[in-house]
């Protein structure tokens, strides 16, 4: 049966590698757990600290408390040393004993079940009668029907219930990841979570008091079967936690460290409980926890293995009673808070971009946490539960991390906050800022940029870019010299931008003035908006009825370019060979006409900067601009010494499938702005990159020549550290499975066939899919189009029921994933959307008929 | 000798409390450590994992390596179980043994010294001859001259050197904090650090290869003598670290958790080393560490206490050789990086507010880390060292944390990043955002604000405030109705702000347009600046020659208010009784004249908002505006239905000694902006608070009526969590010793007498001290005044030598501390400044003579 040890070693290593790669099936998460009763995870600072005794104590206290018909669900997801060391077996036998001792007249129905047992473990349990039922075994586990139950007490009246479950069991009393290897019985994280979810449902429909306990194995960061640390494995549920601490010499340190490992993964520890070893470890622990988390001390545990522990449980009774009380009140507090949150939010928040009158209390989403791409959302129905939901608005276009990156970033941000906090940037240097600048210049700035200017968000990065561009323009066009020699009067010069209709560059006034009039720029919104630009109508591209089509601006309608405006594939749209088309020269002509200096104005207006969002105009409605047009526009501006700014705040960092969207239009700017995804979607940080020529136009003898713009948290260390780690993570095929090695490209995330199919849908006007973005415009009457449209609301509410959280841009809706999101998840989302579109269409038809 | 146990217990608890309170002497930190040779801290995941064996292994490897005349410094700061368990004694005896075995011809001079020994421990060591020398004992410790040395080898040629030092020793083999209590021998953290610093200097002047090891006690988070966790205690040095892991069952978890406790405190772990227990714990550890940190495995340690371990050391030789190599190369890498950082920074950074031409490479400050209010800065001279420096620019006015708050915030930010990352804010609610909004409204918004609008920095918060104010103004003055009914044309309305000369409200265009022309707003800086305001010259207050004096604006010169413009104390300036003065009515008249509607313009200009920085105009040059004037200005504007904005970005959150500077002028705004110190000085987050009336002017049926402004990371969870924790920490007298309980006030931080003295200094024009701010204006010729002035440069460079990092605002220089900084530290800084001012004055006189 067993192979030669060294062979086994090789084998198991290979096994381990394979498992690592596939331990997440990467499906759209449907995990949820009830809030109908308290559920706690019991963790320990180390192995052998009496975790199961604590579980037993809580269980006994819970069952003995009134009402007497209470229910206790004990779950051991991963058990090694089975069957001898089975913790659920211990609970199953010990609770009736305690009950009988303390309340002999009580009735209890107890059961104990082990669901999946490795063959070696089953062989031990069954003994001589074991016959391998390999047919029913999967991945080395079988369900051998290990179930037992007993009834204690006189049987009169409804009694209490104790349900014990072991989900996966191995024979050897070692860490599950080792037992997995040695017994060839492997289980992936998703399967553990799915089965755990099922077990957590036990007890939902009960009338009495229910308490569920999930007991982990070993220490908080001990590996599970797949090798994932348990604190990572169970993170999607983020159950409230009890930490069993260490009362021995050295135990203060171990307990604090274990607490920190849980905390740095977003868990809430409700209480610490530890065995007394006469060292008063609770004193420094309480001091460390600043009395926010109670620390309970259990009497010393008898060392004699023959001791039935009944006396110990008696002595511990008051401690467990207290602990159970803490657990219940903490649960109640959590529920109360979840329930009041929507009302409170409505009362005191002022949400951006939100008409509060249109958001009734029941529409407010309570987000309990996020794990990778998924929100954990509180839902009120069915006693209330916490449910996973895909964050398809990418929390407003910022999100990138999967679960592993999120935890990594949390740790790195914590490290950086502890190492640096925030330190002064000007004239100084510190590691995260330097490494971040290096990574930006080696990455998105490669081949053109030589300086990095940090600020806080896209909007500030744009204002900085405009200041840079204008100075460069003045320098290049000798205006700077004229000004310094007083040959020219400042007031005679009006600097404008060249920008595209439908663009959006941020919310601060300077960034707004660089965009064409829009719903965001009206007098009511921004009385100071003036629109300081030459605004060109660009040609747009999208997929309609299966084909990619270009719609040229009205002013170009006289040109006959029909043959150049329809494509079978997106690749054709981006193909550089289009430079030779008739459309290409038509674009040149159009642009030249638009850039003719305007006359009649009081001042002489200069086009002092070109600013564009490469390829996709985000806030404008996910509009795809013909890349050929942008390439020619850049060329024409460079010919006229107009500095070129790329606003990559939305498009940068893999949003469009490449690190910098400049790659898609095959040209380089003088200045480019990055933000949003740059930190992986954790905290605000922005960067404006510039060429050395741009930088040089600010160098001089006086401080007044320098660029006098800077925010207090300029290049803040925590943001830079988040950026460093995200930038590296996204582009490395070792960490991002979507990177096509050697190509610096993301794999296609949205299923091409299904995208094509959706583009034919009668409810759909147009479709765009590129990189992490899939967007569609709903077909509506003209009066219902635009940013203020509410036409997609019912569709999006349906999709939220399906576990996809989206937000509309008027009648444009979009789904956005992270650079690491699996294409399978994207496929599932597209399928869900496609299904809902059918219903939406029918609903619309019905409405029309009703009218 | 020993008291009754229960009495001892009471005694020691009392003892503990007293110690806690005083365990930092809170002096201006002068800590530094050399970089002339590698210094490592040896930590362990738990007690009893062989930390000292690892130290011995590294020591042996180091001494045995070429050059043979190498030096090894071994330091044990805290030793319990002395003398039996003395680790430095073990090293002192074992290394010669190993050396003799492996290289019998080598020469070694070894010494072992124990500096401070508790009386019970000394009694054991000295035995019967012990006579208590209480005269030389301090805090229960004495230096009993425990020193021994030996020479090994033939004595020919210069040999190697082994220096072993124990700094503090207790008798009982328990945690130092317990031994401290039981043996009445206490040492504060500052004394540990000061003595450790001294020991670290051993070996600086050596020629050969030197390596220093600092071995901690117990686990990473085991308490030291004062009760501080060792990982917190040693944090100011932030020495690179070796972690001794746990190879036993459960050891993966303990090792990972210990690693995380070090990481979350900003330590760099260079290698993990652990004893083999046959469980291959290194495999999951390597996987967790993603191969960035090497994990080394030591052979199993003989359990027999009689084993002399020589064979084990032989077997381990190659591992320790490898480990030593890792330590040396990591040290070299660190040095190389520190050396190249200034050059790289100069090449690729574009610092804000910085004329790069004026910053030569040697002026670039390399910041290795920060701990509370102090930077750790790299200095090149004397082989290079890392030195502490007080961050008196408060890293540009943002800083608040002391060392304890910094570590707490790091953990809370890590927790929040892991729990939430960033999640969508509009229409949603999540705990950190809700709690933060609640705290803001209960704190700085108390009594007037009812809504919180989040954004990223002060500048964006101001732009949002302006939008709010203008809408409110339009609504209050029926213009909104007129506009909606088309009775009025938008283009006929010009909205302006009322603002003060010298004010500064941020760097984005909208915020800039709300300020009067200044060096920051010139055409070269911001070609789009127009200055949309009625800009009033305010009266300024400052201390000159010992008295607080008001200088009224020129336009008021005709009024005779002399008797109302000079005060003996700052309190008089803020006294509300001044409302009845003649000056008060003169202010009213002046303001009314200035607010008369302007005529002659094409448009009809409205004063649509008042915006002021309460009390202190920061960027304008730390100008203190007469609080009486601001109070009257607010009143006059409210009378005219002009919404009032307080820009508290700089002044808020204890900067001026109160949570909101509005408290100082006894009036409330309609809108107020907060940022900077709100997150404690960690990461950017801003909030615009508003009254319900302001909010209501945006409520309507259409989304287009809503406030369409919002940044991607609106209300980002990590920032909100940092804010929640800082806001609570600063105002709680339990955590902030500067809070005067019950008064919601900071204690006076700057010594009044010394401030007065400085105001008489001939080099000083004026002085302002308030809350955490002390500022002075240097007396200069007119042509050298203002933002571009470089006159303070030499003075500030001297102060940097003294360990105070300051930045000038032209000829205004300032020192800023945190809300928790001890007044003693402030006093030391003032004294230092005062001393340097004398030198500065002399230097100036000399220069004048030379001319």
CATH class descriptor of the largest domain in chain A? Alpha Beta
Count of alpha and pi helical runs of chain A: 25
Task: Count every beta strand of chain A, where a strand is a DSSP E run of 2 or more residues.
Answer: 34
Chains forming the largest contact: A-B, 175 and 175 residues
**Domain count of chain A:** 4
- CATH-assigned homologous superfamily of the largest domain in chain A: P-loop containing nucleotide triphosphate hydrolases
For this structure, the CATH topology of the largest domain in chain A is Rossmann fold
Shape summary of chain A: elongated
- Level-2 CATH architecture of the largest domain in chain A: 3-Layer(aba) Sandwich
**Strand share of the residues of chain A?**
15-25%
**What value does the average pLDDT of chain A take?**
91
Low-confidence stretches of chain A: 1-24
Proportion in helices of chain A: 25-40%
- Helix-strand makeup class of chain A: alpha/beta
User: What distance lies between the first and last C-alpha atoms of chain A, to the nearest angstrom?
Assistant: 75 Å
Largest sheet of chain A: 10 strands, mixed
Using the CA coordinates, give the radius of gyration of chain A: 32 Å
């Amino acid at each position: 049966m067993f192979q030669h040890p060294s062979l086994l070693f090789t084998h198991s290593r290979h096994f381990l590698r394979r498992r690592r790669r596939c331990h997440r099936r990467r499906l759209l998460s449907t995990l949820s757990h009830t809030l109908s009763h308290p559920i706690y995870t019991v963790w320990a600072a180390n192995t052998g600290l009496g975790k199961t005794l604590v579980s037993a104590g809580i269980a006994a206290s819970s069952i003995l408390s009134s009402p007497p018909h209470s229910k206790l669900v004990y779950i051991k997801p991963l058990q090694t040393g089975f069957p001898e060391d089975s913790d659920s077996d211990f609970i199953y036998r010990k609770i009736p004993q305690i009950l009988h001792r303390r309340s002999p007249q009580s009735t209890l129905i107890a059961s104990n079940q082990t669901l999946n047992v490795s063959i070696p473990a089953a062989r031990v349990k069954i003994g001589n009668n074991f016959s391998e039922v390999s047919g029913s075994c999967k991945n080395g586990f079988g369900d051998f029907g290990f179930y037992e139950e007993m009834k204690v007490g006189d049987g009169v009246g409804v009694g209490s219930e104790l349900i014990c479950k072991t989900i996966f069991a191995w024979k050897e009393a070692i860490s599950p990841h080792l037992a997995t290897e040695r017994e060839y019985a492997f289980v992936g994280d998703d399967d553990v979570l799915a089965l755990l979810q099922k077990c957590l449902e036990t007890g939902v429909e009960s009338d009495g008091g229910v308490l569920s306990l999930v007991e982990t194995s070993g220490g908080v960061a001990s590996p599970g079967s797949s090798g994932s640390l348990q604190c990572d494995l169970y993170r999607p549920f983020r159950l409230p936690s009890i930490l069993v601490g260490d009362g021995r010499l050295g135990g203060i340190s171990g307990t604090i460290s274990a607490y920190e490992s849980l905390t740095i993964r977003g868990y809430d520890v409700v209480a610490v409980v530890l065995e007394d070893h006469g060292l008063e470890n609770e004193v420094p622990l309480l001091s460390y926890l600043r009395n926010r988390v109670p620390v309970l001390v259990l009497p010393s545990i008898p060392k004699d293995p023959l001791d039935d522990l009944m006396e110990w449980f008696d002595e511990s009774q008051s401690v467990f009673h207290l602990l159970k009380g803490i657990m219940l009140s903490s649960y109640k507090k959590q529920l109360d808070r979840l329930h009041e949150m929507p009302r409170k939010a409505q009362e005191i928040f002022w949400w951006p971009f939100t008409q509060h009158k249109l958001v009734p209390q029941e529409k407010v989403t309570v987000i309990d946490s996020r794990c990778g791409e998924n929100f954990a959302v509180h839902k009120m129905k069915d006693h209330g539960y916490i449910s996973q939901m895909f964050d398809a608005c990418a929390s407003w276009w910022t999100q990138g991390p999967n679960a592993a990156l999120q935890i990594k970033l949390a740790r790195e941000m914590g490290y950086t906050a502890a190492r640096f906090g925030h330190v002064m940037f000007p004239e100084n240097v510190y590691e995260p800022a330097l490494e971040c600048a290096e990574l930006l210049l080696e990455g998105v700035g490669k081949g053109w940029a030589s300086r990095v200017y940090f600020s806080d968000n896209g909007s500030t990065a744009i204002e900085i870019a405009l200041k840079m561009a204008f100075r460069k323009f003045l320098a290049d066009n000798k205006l700077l010299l004229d000004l310094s020699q007083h040959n020219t009067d400042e007031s005679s010069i009006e600097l404008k931008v060249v920008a595209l209709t439908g663009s959006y560059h941020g919310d601060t006034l300077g960034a707004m003035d660089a965009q064409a009039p829009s719903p965001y720029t009206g007098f009511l919104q921004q009385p100071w908006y003036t629109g300081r630009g030459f605004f060109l109508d660009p040609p747009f591209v999208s997929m309609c009825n299966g084909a990619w089509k270009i719609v040229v601006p009205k002013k170009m309608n006289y040109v006959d370019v029909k043959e150049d405006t329809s494509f079978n594939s997106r690749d054709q749209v981006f193909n550089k060979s289009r430079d030779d088309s008739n459309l290409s020269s038509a674009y040149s002509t159009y642009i030249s006409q638009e850039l003719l200096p305007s006359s009649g104005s009081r001042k002489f207006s200069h086009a002092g900067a070109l600013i564009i969002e490469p390829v996709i105009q985000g806030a404008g409605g996910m509009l795809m601009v013909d890349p050929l047009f942008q390439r020619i526009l850049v060329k024409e501006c460079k010919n006229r010494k107009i500095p070129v700014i790329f606003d990559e705040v939305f498009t940068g960092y893999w949003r469009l499938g490449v690190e910098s969207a400049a790659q898609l239009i095959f040209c380089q700017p003088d200045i480019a702005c990055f933000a949003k995804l740059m930190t992986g979607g954790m905290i605000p940080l922005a960067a404006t990159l510039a060429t050395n020529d741009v930088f040089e136009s600010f160098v001089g003898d006086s401080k007044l020549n320098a660029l006098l713009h800077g925010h207090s948290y300029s290049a803040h260390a925590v943001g830079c550290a988040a950026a460093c780690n995200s930038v590296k993570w996204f582009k490395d095929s070792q960490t991002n499975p979507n990177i096509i090695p050697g190509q610096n490209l993301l794999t296609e995330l949205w299923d091409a066939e299904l995208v094509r199919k959706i583009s034919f849908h009668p409810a759909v006007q147009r479709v765009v899919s590129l990189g992490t973005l899939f967007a569609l415009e709903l077909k509506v009457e003209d009066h219902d189009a635009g940013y203020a449209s509410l036409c997609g609301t019912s569709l999006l509410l349906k999709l939220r029921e399906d576990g996809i959280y989206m937000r509309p841009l008027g009648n444009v809706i979009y789904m956005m994933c992270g650079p690491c999101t699996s294409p399978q998840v994207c496929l599932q989302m597209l399928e869900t959307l496609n299904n809902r579109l059918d219903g939406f269409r029918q609903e619309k038809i019905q409405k029309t008929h009703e009218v």
